[in-house]
Amino acid sequence: MRHPVCLLLCLLSSFTQAQIGVNIGLPERGGTYIDLAKENYRWNNLNTASAIGSGEVDTKGWPTVDAQYIADFRPVAEWAGSIDDPEIYRLNVSGVWKCSFHGQGNVSSSAGGMVQNVNYNAANNLTSFDFSVSPASNGLFLINIGNTRRTPNDPVNSGFTDFKMLRPGYTDDSQLFYPPFLALFDSIHFSAIRYMVFTDANGTDPTYPAVMEWASRKLPDDASQTSLPTIDKRVGGCWEHVIDLANRTQTDAWINVPISASADYVTQLATMLKNGLNQNLNIYVESSNEVWNTAPGFEQTQYNKAQAMALGITEQQNHARRTVELAQIFGTVFGQGSLNGRVRVLMCTHQPMLKWWAEPMLQYIQNNFGPPANYLYAIGCQTYFSGGADPAESVTKILDDCHASITNQITEMGVNEAGRTQWIAKANAWNLPGGFVSYEGGPDHGGGSTTNIANRIMAERNERMCDEMRYNLDDAFIQLGGTLAMQFTLTSSYNRYGCWGLTDDVTNPHRNFKFGCIKSLLPDPPSGIVELIGERPPVVTVSPNPSAAVATFKVQADSGNLTLSIFDGFGREVKSAAVSGGQCTVATDDLPNGLYIFLLRNNGEGLGVGKLVVQH
Predict the structure, then answer these.
(1) pLDDT digits (tens, 9 = 90+) for 267-326
(2) What local confidence, expressed as pLDDT, does residue 38 receive?
(3) pLDDT tens per residue across span 204-260
(4) Residues ≥6 apart with Cβ < 8 Å to 207
(5) How far are the Cα atoms of 511, 526, 527, 533, 535 from residue 530, in angstroms, in the given order?
(6) What is the reported pLDDT for 98?
């Protein structure tokens, strides 16, 4: 029989044997929020049939005119008369959506469902209605709100506020995030979540020398968490929701700080994260995203170029300078010893640019600020692989090409010499504590081309894709010495623009094999806990279990210096208490929902181990 301490250590090591995280977007396919309006901002002026403009909304983004709400869940590109997905997979949007807004108006539907049970409550100036959607719906919703009065004293056509459209089965959105979306993170223990797409880091910076100030950031009570160009808030989800999701999932947060954010913005952001994130969570900090990328939509690249020119340095040097600046600010806010501990600053660039970007950036830091390891936790690039470029390629041939694509990236001996082994060697040569990371990666069958699109999509759903993902993440990354691989992305539709998602439906994650593949690389702790705990009689019991507010532990052990510790799924101690009179109580109301391990010790020696479920 293994000793309880050995048991705990063995169990916790299984949680961290593979460091794999995931990028998330907004919206996730199938739902991020309970309230659809938080992830979908599409309004037409009902009177002109054109998209609502900046002069037709208030300071939060709500229409000040009669408006039509548009939601479109259809497969790409059904609106143009074709569908890329050979399976024509549709999200199930049927049921009764509970809708409301502050103000008065006549509500009707042009497509997607039936408006029913319209009611106006004068006491709180609230109009509510049901939007009933049949299983035969193709997913295009058009809801018309006309003859509006924002308040009873306002004229007709004055708009409304606080529009909500709650998913079937929900009557309020007090939980904020859609439970099936959260369930994905309860079922798989990612090492980190990267919020680049969620916060819309690409293409949201102003033109240099303008800066982004803290006062202009996205707020929780704005009309939506997606881009709001009508009020010049092109960014995505607010930082408060990043903190909420990180705490709820108990997963380290990887954030992308806007390149144009002022020093005050960065300081305020670091302060919010320090005060809001659970103290057991780490923060990965990256300057914007792909500042080397010259494709349309990457305005941060142009900002970096212009700023570099103004400072009289190169693009690479400016990216390095900005990264150090972030490290200095975050280090000051979080305090001495935080850098390369809880705060982990990353410097990322394009894989072929090891010699042309990564090395000059590291050298610039060395020459101007001192050893890069004083500021940087790791360097990183992408780990994508692809196949299926030719018109007639079968699914098998596409997967063969994917395997070859991964193999070719392990060691690149061409002019770039930028294979993964070279990246790892470079990180080690500069003594970076976090080594080499991948900020994005996975099968890449996008680009917008419809060539062989059916087979490209079916290759993504083939069981063998799991083998290629394992090869890419394990053999060709972790086993080589890579430290943290970030998959792109959690969910997406599968179409000509990419099949990035581990699944294409948050309510049905195992529709294909990719989600299960990652899950197998990151072992699910509950089953392991149950098996291992079952090997010994209990020395300590807990009630209630699940616990919502307070857990009481009763100990069957000799007296002594008894302490009880609670660990989260990553092996981090989150609570501890002294045992007196054969028991102790621990508050659990500040712990996120999830599975925890408790360990009883006497003068440091383990006596008993068990599991605790926290469920509020």
Answers:
(1) 999 999 999 998 889 999 999 999 999 999 999 999 999 999 999 999 999 999 999 999
(2) 98
(3) 999 999 999 999 999 999 999 999 999 999 999 999 999 999 999 989 999 999 999
(4) 299, 302, 303, 306
(5) 27, 6, 5, 5, 9
(6) 98
- Alpha carbon distance 148, 158 (integer Å): 6
Distance CA 166, CA 194 (A): 26
Q: Is the dihedral of CA 452, 455, 460, 466 positive or negative?
A: negative
Rounded to whole angstroms, the Cα distance separating 29 from 181 reads 9
554 conformational bin, left if phi > 0, alpha if psi -120 to 50, beta if neither: beta
In 528-603 the beta strands, taken as DSSP E runs, fall at: 540-543, 550-555, 562-567, 573-578, 583-587, 594-602
Could you give the C-alpha distances from 113 to 99, 139, 412, 564, in angstroms and in order?
A: 13, 9, 55, 55
Residue range 601-616, pLDDT digits in tens = 888 777 777 778 787 6
Contact 231, 61 (CB under 8 A): yes
441: three-class secondary structure by DSSP: strand
Cβ atoms of 175 and 34 within 8 Å: the answer is: yes
pLDDT in tens, 172-184: 999 999 999 999 9
Distance from C-alpha of 241 to C-alpha of 236, rounded to nearest angstrom: 11
**Could you tell me the two tokens for 136?**
């035969």
Find how far residue 38's CA is from the centre of its chain.
Answer: 16
User: Helix crossing, 315-334 with 359-369: angle to 10°?
Assistant: 60
In whole angstroms, what is the distance from residue 230 CA to residue 234 CA? 9
**Matching residue, tokens 């924002």:** 150
110 and 142 Cβ atoms separated by less than 8 Å: yes
- CA dist 398 and 452 (Å) reads 10
> What 3-state DSSP class applies to 341?
coil
- Each residue's pLDDT tens digit, 21-40: 999 999 999 999 999 999 99
Q: Look up the pTM and report it.
A: 0.86
Predicted pLDDT of residue 162: 98
The pLDDT value recorded for residue 613 is 77
Tokens of residue 147, six digits: 């003859």
How far apart are alpha carbons 389 and 453 in whole angstroms?
A: 10
Distance (Å, whole) CA 243 – CA 252? 10
* Backbone angles phi and psi of 431, in degrees to 5: 60, 35
Question: β-strands 605-614, 594-602: how paired?
Answer: antiparallel
List pLDDT tens digits, range 447-457: 899 999 999 99
Give the closest residue to 145 by CA, choosing from 225, 300, 37: 37
Q: Give the C-alpha separation, 149 to 160, whole Å.
A: 7
